[in-house]
Amino acid sequence: MSPLNRRRLLAGSALAAFAATAPRNAGASASAYPTPHQHPSALAVADGFASVNALGLNGTTGGAGGQAVTVTTADALADYVGRKEPYVITVSGRVQVGDDMLTVVANKTILGVGSSSEITGGGLQLGSTTRPGNNVIIRNLRFTDASDDSISVTNKAHHVWIDHCDLSRGYDGLLDVKRESDYVTISWNHFHDHSKAALLGHSDTYTADRGKLRVTYHHNFFDRTDQRHPRVRFGEPVHVYNNYYRGNALYGVASTEDAGVVVEGNYFENVAKPILSGYDKSGPGRVVERNNAYVNSGAPQTLGTVVEPRTYYAYALDPASSVPSLVTAGAGVGRV
């Protein structure tokens, strides 16, 4: 069975189970919840590093088992994402957040409806120094015009799954993971109309990130964003597979400060510097590359050895040649 057919089989069975068991709030519409068989890329359970049993969690379940609510305003969203109890929060329509980063605390699932749910003007920060943002799922949401990061996974947040989102026109990073965060999966997202896409690691001097930042990036569409797809410091292993890179002006992936990154099965199109070891003032990182496609693109830089992601989880690699069609058809909102 091909990797895509295996994904279809898992998607259908898992989504059917989710639709049957998801709690519903009195008065909430059924259309606020995912239905099965919408797209073969739509998995109902986290994969990659977010699926790993570690740090007291058995994978990433978000707000499963908690109350389900639907929000239409920034005040309601801020209220529910900050509550200590688990919640499944459906965002309906366009929510104007203002200039704030809303703090999301542990055990939350945040879902968009169809292709019209949007958070604009501000962003989501997973965790604070006193309130951890562990076990959080964000899916099927559009993020635009953030005053800072669109999504920031920070302050030791772990077990986070960000899936099928559309991120553009932010101020700083579209989706950053930093400050000792760990066990994160970033999958099937569309990044566009921005420069700094996905930072991984706070700074060259924040050595506390060493031994953390285990993140999987797969089936994302880095669509003419300039840089950081991701830019990695210290983390190992970081797994970057089956992503579609198109027209990235500065570079694709950069491994720096002795990070360990496995880059495989990706499709680089019109990317002069697809893979770098070291960037700007940051020292070199280790990179293993394999089975990538380089179309009208430069040669990759590699260095050293990296811990294999398969020591943590199993995965099925799609052929690099199929990545543009798979990712453009499946990434972004409206597919779950």
UniProtKB/TrEMBL annotation:
Subcellular location: Secreted
PANTHER family with a match to the protein in the record: PECTATE LYASE 18-RELATED, PECTATE LYASE 21-RELATED
Key words of the record: Carbohydrate metabolism, Lyase, Polysaccharide degradation, Secreted, Signal
Family matches, as InterPro entries: PbH1, Pec_lyase, Pectin_lyas_fold, Pectin_lyase_fold/virulence, PEL, TAT_signal
Protein name as annotated: Polysaccharide lyase family 1 protein
Signal peptide: 1-28
Record GO terms (molecular function): lyase activity
Family to which this protein belongs: Belongs to the polysaccharide lyase 1 family.
The keyword Transcription appears for this protein: no
Name of one Pfam family that matches: Pectate_lyase_4
Listed Gene3D superfamilies: Single-stranded right-handed beta-helix, Pectin lyase-like
Domain Pectate lyase: 64-274
tRNA processing in keyword set: no
